[in-house]
What we know:
The longest helix is centred in the last third of the chain and has 19 residues, at about 305-325. By secondary structure, this protein is of the alpha/beta class. The radius of gyration is 21 Å and the shape is globular. The protein is built from 14 helices and 17 strands.
Amino acid sequence: MPNSPTRTDLLIQQEHDTIVQTYKRAPFVLTGGEGATVFDAEGRAYTDWVAGIAVNALGYGDPGLQQAIQTAATGLIHTSNLYYTAPGIELAAQLVEKSFADKVFFTNSGAEANEGALKFARKVAFEKGLKDKTEVVCFEGAFHGRTLGALSLTPKEKYQKPFHPLMAGVVVANYNDLASAQAAITDKTAAVIVEPVQGEGGIYSATPEFLRGLRHLCDQHGATLIFDEVQCGMGRTGKLWAHEHSGVTPDIMTLAKPLAGGLPIGAILMTDAVASAMHAGEHGSTFAGGALVTGVAGHVLARVSDPAFLAHVNEIGDYLMDRLSEINSPLVKEVRGKGLMVALELTVDVSPVVEAGYQHGLLLVNAGANVIRLVPPLVVNREHVDELVGKLTDILAGMG
């Protein structure tokens, strides 16, 4: 007599029947979590090294985050941007206080933040009467989102090819190659957009010299410099903002993933010079900056920006890099990263490692074919690192 289908089986079949199949999901259904651990519908536990793709900075079941959500939910859920509400104003003030920025525009996601940043940069040029100054320079290995403008700046054929024609005026240069950037940036350049640490591209850090060079080139040609910190910002690299490692500041910075601890939010931070180019009615969003999500984000930002919290990220990040470097396997090519944004690059495709991780109680994710991307909750500790390294050592040994 055949076994009855489990709840997991039934839910996965229902998902296949009702949801557009644009994701290859793991073969289980997550139902809960605590700290850096999540649980599935069959009661199995997994240590999470993905954090919802660098989102769940405070992990799962955090009492302070839960209280912030409950408190925010007792107030206004939504009003639209036709009216003032306190939480969004207070969050913007926090972001300005803790960054280079003078002004903030809220969005609902990282892709929306990058789309808005492009519009703002082009509007800066338009306000100056430079109607031919519309080009945008991006870099090989970049990932800025999947909406059409952001996708145009994500130069990966498998992402772009089915959706041509993309946004015109995009020029692609080589990351960490100042000569390539110099050739790409001209008086027609409205904006240069770069990740201080590339996430999807494989966890590659921009050198301080490269970012300084981009700053100089943008100043020379009157272009707007945009730092995309959607994945690398908000404490992920051991500093509140990833560009702090270089000492270079942008004209615009985009944020999203961890800002509200798992609730959808994005933000465009900018100088007054950029903000002054935008006028009433020229950009908007129905849901962005709502009282509930910004109230929660205020709590997360206060927690993550605390010096003791950032010191923990640096301590555990250094420990993670050291322990990963101890793995004695011919399959390991390189360990690199900053803070708790770390790459374990292998000489082989990492898909079997990700799959094997599920059997060993690990959630892992790739960044390209050969890189395991480690972007855990920022609250992981040494015991989590030791567990990870022990299990990865076993998995890699089993692969020969």
